[in-house]
Amino acid sequence: MIVGSVTGVGVAKPNGKVHWSIGKKMVVAWVLTLPGAAVVSALVYYGVQRVF
Questions:
Q1: How distant is the alpha carbon of residue 46 from its chain centre?
Q2: By the 8 A CB rule, do 16 and 10 touch?
Q3: Residue 16 φ then ψ, to 5°
């Protein structure tokens, strides 16, 4: 939410500057976080299942 607020203020100001390349990287990171966490969780789960 903070990112959206900062971006909105940057766009709204007359001389405000928004680094869209950084915003693009953040969106990619958000999109990859959930699947990445799911893969890591599955690997840990199956690893623990093999031990016990």
A1: 26
A2: yes
A3: -65, 145
pLDDT per position as a tens digit, 8-24? 888 888 877 888 888 89
Structural domain count, the chain: 1
Q: What is the pTM of this model?
A: 0.60
Host domain of residue 34: 19-52
**What's the confidence (pLDDT) of residue 42?**
98
Residue 10 counted as domain residue: no
> Going by C-beta distance under 8 Å and a sequence separation of 6 or more, which residues neighbour residue 31?
none
